[in-house]
Amino acid sequence: MTTSTSLVYLIALPLFGATVLLLAGRRADKWGHILGTAMSASAFAVGVYQLTQMLGRTNESRPVTQKLFEWISVGSFNVDAGLMLDQLSICFVLLITGVGTLIHIYSISYMSHDHDRRRFFAYLNLFIAAMLLLVLGNSYLNLYVGWEGVGLASYLLIGFWNQKPAYATASKKAFVMNRIGDMGLSFAIMIAFATLGTVSFDGVKAASEHASTAALTAIGIMLLVAATGKSAQFPLQAWLGDAMAGPTPVSALIHAATMVTAGVYLITRSNFIFDAAPTAQLLVVIVGAITLLFGALIGTAKDDIKKALAASTMSQIGYMILGAGLGPVGYAFAIMHLLTHGFFKAGMFLGAGSVMHGMNDEVNMRKYGALRKYMPITFATFGLGYLAILGVPPFAGFYSKDKIIETAFNAGGNKGIILGIVTLLGAGITAFYMTRVMILTFTGKSRWDDEVHPHESPLLMWLPMAILAVGSVTSGFLLSNGDALVNWLAPLFAEHGEHAERLQPMVVSLLALAVVAVGIAIAFFKYSRQEVLAIAPENVSVFTKIARQDLMQDKFNEAVFMRPGQLLTSALVKTDEAVIDGAVRGVGQMALGSGSVLRGIQTGFVRSYAALILVGAALLIAAIWMVTQ
Questions:
Q1: Is a pLDDT exceeding 80 seen at residue 376?
Q2: CA torsion sign, 334 to 339 to 342 to 348?
Q3: Could you give phi then psi for residue 67, rounded to 5 degrees?
Q4: Is 163 helix (H, G, I), strand (E, B) or coil?
Q5: What is the pLDDT of residues 69-100, one digit of tens each?
Q6: pLDDT (0 to 100) of residue 499
Q7: Class of residue 339 by CB neighbours under 10 A (exposed 0-12, middle 13-18, buried 19+)
Q8: Both ends of the chain: CA-CA distance in Å?
Q9: Mean pLDDT of all residues in 612-627
Q10: Per-residue pLDDT tens digits for 516-541
Q11: What's the rounded Cα separation, in Å, for the pair 279 and 275?
């Protein structure tokens, strides 16, 4: 590895912006949004510069490192605060800062009337800085600092309008559920140090070649637990829908380019652990398969446009997790889908914000309709993202999601058949609910109230949407052309092996397109040929009722974890009061009782004290006499 002196600027610039905006207070209200956007854009410029430098070096010399200072040195536990930029982390750096900067630009207009816009941009900068530290840290411990920083920043952003109790509750829910997942990362770091003697990526990779399968499996499972929290995967996915309480730019930032991608990064970065721990790797596949269906099914019943997109994010991250669990052949395709998803999902979230901007902040799609006439730019950009997520050629998702479906089919045996069917089914359901979103929002008859006057968003909002739409069209082709991304990432993974080819790529693509066509057709006949009610009907199937309640995930968590936890806590409190506090109170009562008895001899009469002295002296003399005999 070579060294670089400029890596620190990637983190320092947005961190500087956050610091200035938080410390300057109201004095920065007039220019805070400009500074915040400039710091994010500057970090993107540094990232582009680093990419150009990296392209000019050979594969072996492309990774660069920078030691900041010696962080921990206790016995054999030595950790430097250091940064590492390689072929994997540069992908995330450009996505985080590039899409993040577009979201900053969008937010200038979207948050223009908010009294605390300066503070909002400070939190955005803090989020960018924390996410950059997460992907640039050269050890699991450095990554952990960024990991927790992202958790804090997401809490601040989701609950930005915390004067509304529901929003404050949503931010708290996201924070608590992520802390549960974070325990997995903590345990993984502890196990790595205890069994391998190091927590640096290079050290763990070298030590894993001689480590026991049991130790690597334990580390892998704990890393997966961490990933399920940050990336909203089963069983820690319940926070994602509620996170829509935050301003829409936050939804685009968290759900497209940053926080929910952290789990995918953690698994792909730890590829050497999962490759050597088949059980942990299988669990990764299972979690991804469950979540991609889980999120898709929830998306079919959501009338809130942002929550429908949130369910979609959960599902698409499930595809990435599944791809990463398929081993060396799947890592690059997982990252490819992550990058293309960053474009089209960020664009759709910003499009949802644009619709809300023109509809007096209404989020219920049943009160939309016919908006393509009033918001043509939003319709066009959102529509390109819609085609990309469906995997329609030549849009981005066709190149990335189809590759994961193909890899799933080629996994071999019954496993390949099951995973292939699951991924195809997810694609069909995605086509259904995303077509439903398009129809309810942009087509048909208008269903909004008379006081609503839809209109197109201003330039600073639709320009980022247009740029992201270009990425939705071109990114898949650019990343897959000549296996560009696969070859770029190949040096970081163990052999980029190939599964036995059960289905030709063309066959997989035709199957996927057929399933997508079926999903589109069902949504079309259900929502275009029938009247859409402005109020959701109550007389619906049991499945729809369950899907509206997020497949009962909150009720399950309440019944299985919260209520038993409350009972356990109550029992522990009573035990503490009866046993521990009781013992302490007993000692105190004994002291008081003894004092009461001894107080009886404190009469205040000299004759009583003289008598006691006489008795004491007599007893002392008697004791001495008995001892000396």
A1: yes
A2: negative
A3: -85, 125
A4: coil
A5: 888 888 878 888 899 999 999 999 999 999 99
A6: 54
A7: buried
A8: 88
A9: 86
A10: 999 999 999 999 888 888 888 888 88
A11: 10
Give SS3 for 590.
Answer: helix
- Among candidates 309, 331, 299, which has minimal Cα distance to 492? 331
Per-residue pLDDT reduced to its tens digit, 472-506: 999 999 999 989 999 999 999 876 555 566 778 89
Check residue 558 and report its DSSP letter. Answer: I
> How far apart (Å, rounded) are the C-alpha atoms in residues 313 and 232?
9
CA 337 from chain centre, in angstroms, equals 16
Question: Looking at residue 374, what is its pLDDT?
Answer: 95
Q: What is the pTM of this model?
A: 0.90
DSSP reduced 3-state for 500: coil
> Using CA atoms, how far apart are residues 100 and 206, in angstroms rounded to an integer?
35
Residue 113: burial class (beta carbons within 10 Å; 0-12, 13-18, 19+):
exposed
The mean pLDDT value of the chain amounts to 91
Q: How much is the average pLDDT of 14-18?
A: 97
447 close to 534: Cβ distance less than 8 angstroms: yes
Let me know if 420 is exposed, middle or buried by CB neighbors in 10 A (0-12, 13-18, 19+): buried
Lowest mean pLDDT among 25-34, 149-158, 566-575: 566-575
Of the candidates 103, 108, 98, 94, the one whose C-alpha atom is nearest the C-alpha of residue 350 is 103
Looking at per-residue pLDDT, the higher value among 521 and 620 belongs to 521
- Cα–Cα nearest to 502, from 565, 418, 408, 429: 408
- Radius of gyration of the chain measured on its C-alpha atoms: 30
Residue 158 near residue 248 (C-beta atoms within 8 A): no
Q: Residues 430, 389: contact at Cβ < 8 Å? A: yes
Distance CA 346, CA 222 (A): 29
Which is more confidently placed, 306 or 529? 306
What are the structure tokens assigned to 309, written together?
Answer: 């997109």
Q: How far apart are CA 243 and CA 42, in angstroms?
A: 28
Rounded to whole angstroms, the maximal C-alpha distance in the chain is: 118
Residue 424's identity, in one-letter code, is: L
Would you place residue 141 in the very low, low, confident or very high pLDDT band (cuts 50, 70, 90)?
Answer: very high
The angle subtended at Cα 182 by Cα 180 and Cα 186, nearest 5°, is 120
Give residue-wise pLDDT tens across range 252-291: 888 777 889 999 999 999 999 999 999 999 999 999 999 9
**Angstrom distance (rounded) from CA 466 to CA 41:** 18
Instruction: Please give the Cα distance from 338 to 527 (Å, whole number).
Output: 30
Contact criterion met (CB below 8 Å) for 536 and 433:
no
Is the Cβ–Cβ distance between 86 and 202 less than 8 Å?
A: no
Alpha helices in 538-580 (DSSP H): 542-548, 553-557, 563-575
Task: Tell me how crowded residue 336 is: count the other CB atoms within 10 A of its CB.
Answer: 27
DSSP state of 64: E
Amino acid at 318: G
User: Distance (Å, rounded) from C-alpha 334 to C-alpha 150?
Assistant: 22
In this prediction, residues 359-364 reach a mean pLDDT of: 93
